[in-house]
Every structure is written in structure tokens, then in C-alpha cells.
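Re: the 361-residue chain
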Amino acid sequence: MKNVLVTGGAGFIGSNFIRFLLSHESGVRVINLDVLTYAGSLLNLEDLPDPERHIFIKGDICDSDLVNSLFQKYQIETVVHFAAESHVDRSILGPGQFIQTNIIGTFTLLEAARQAWITDKLTPLENCRFHHVSTDEVFGSLGQNDPPFNENTPYSPRSPYSASKASSDHLVRAYHHTYGLPVSITNCTNNYGPFQFPEKLIPLMIINAVAGKPLPVYGDGMQVRDWLYVDDHCEAIYLVLKNGQPGETYPVGGDNQPPNIEIIRTICEVLDELLPQSPHVPHSSLVKYVQDRPGHDRRYAMDISKIRSTLGWSPRKNLKSGLMETVSWYLQNQDWINAINQRGDYKNWMQDNYAERGQKK
């Protein structure tokens, strides 16, 4: 890897991956393309290791002229594609942007890579890789006793978000089989860690609990997810880029599946430990059960045996240690949180999504 285009690199996982890559590849140059929607922030890119090897470009992955020019100007031979609309609740309220970004945007990037690597032959094809970061949600929902998802699980998306990601997965595979584009895919489980936008469960619970605000729990709180610490995810992607086979899909997960209410209670326990003088101890008293979201998938779980056996990857963080680091980061980065809280788009979203849910009957 010499010239790596990272899309969505000002977002949560993308910014963490850029930090990881700059720390582990001394010769790499990162071209970071991000349109800076609500979930992306230049604050996420402060204090990068070796920042002179990072080039930020504000732009849309759907802008074909811009994307093609980046491949030409920077001789891109590796793409790591994070850029996506990713919040299920937002996809329910407004699916159009998910179709545009997740499907059209991925198509635009694939076409640019095909033009640069196959038609124009700007760099040897054997040195190229288009890596697409996807989600376990494309596989649908599991029953309580169903086996975990794996790389051969049939797709069964159930929300506008997961349907748009499933579509992008199919496009990536089609470009491999039709044009010979060297691609790889990782389907990851729920990520958590530093720099995560506080619309997602874990940062929302941390920030609300510290402020003494209600902790909204959808339905009965027994929805099951597999939780993956973001640095572990970054390492998995890095190993797929280095040693993974073109055309292959690698499921990535944290190898744990607690219900959401257990996650929330663990966060409260960590906060009780770190903030024993808080007037909100025990923080679990802030839990408020609210109306569930439409079509809420009951359970996700991922079989990670393929990436474990072929690439030697396993998650390093267990849930308690990962949550301890995550809570500590949010407690130590109040300026970052304040910048988010002051944004009108975040306030409007919280109002739209939570104000009408009310107490669960």
C-alpha cells in the first residue's frame, strides 16, 4: 500500500482506521475523501500520527469527476470504502439519502477504480485492492437459537439502511466477477469506541448518563448485538488488505452477544466506578423503556472462524475492557462532545427520533 483512498475518513470508523494505518504503515499516503455530513468532523482528525502523510479532501463520493480526478492525481491503488449513511433510525425517517450514498456512491467509486486500474492501467492490477466495509445487518435477523451469520448466509435485509448496504455489496461482487476488479468485503458487527457520533447506542448512553438525562431503551431491551471495539475492526481490515484474497468476504465481530439492556447496565456500572461522586449514581436509575422502532431486528451474531483461521485475527478487547476505554475517552473529551451538542442538526435529530416515543406502556 502506497496511495490509499479512504472514503468517509472523517467519520467514526474511518478516522480510527486512518490513525491505525498511519501508525502501522510507514510508507503509506492517505487520501481522505469525506463530504462532512453530520457524522463526519475534522475534530476526529486532530493529532494524527505523521499528519503530513494525510491529505483531506472535502467531497462527495457520488461526484464522479472528483473521484476520477483523485485516482489520476494521486495514483490510487488501494481503496478502503467506509463512506455510508449508517443509522437505521435515520433510514426509516428518510431513506432517500441512503440509496444515494450507499448505492450510487459505491457505484461511482467502482467505476473510477475500473477506469483507473483496468482501462487506463495506471498501476499494476495485482497491486490494487478495492475494500468495501459492510455490515452484518444485510443478513437480516436471527432467532434466539439460530446459528450465527457467516460468509455464506443468504442476504435478507430488513431496513432501508441494510437494503442499501446489501445492494452495494452485490455491486462490489459483480465488479469482481464481471470485470476482474480485485475486491474484498468485510461484514462487521456493531462497532463502538472513541469518536463515535452520539446517535448510536453506546455514546448516547454515556453522554446522557453523565448529564443525568434519561437512557432510552427500545422495547424490552433484549435485542442482541455482537459488539466490536473499533481498533479491533481496524486491525481486521488491515489484515484483509495485507493478506486477504481478492473476491473473498470476511465476517468480523467481537465474539460476544449481550442484549442491549446488559450493555446499558454495564455502561452504568463503569460510570458508577469512574464517577462515584456523581449525583446520578446509580446511573442505572436513569433507564427509561420507550416505544420500539419499526421492524427492529431481534438478534445479530457473527461467526468469525474464517478470518480467525485464514488471517489469524481475533478481537483483542472483551466487552468490559472495551467499554472502560470508551467511557474513559468520552469523559476525557468534553470539548468534542460539546461541539456535537451545539450543532443544530444533532438537536433536531434527537427531537425527531425520541420526542414522540414516550414511556413504554
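The longest helix spans residues 96-119.
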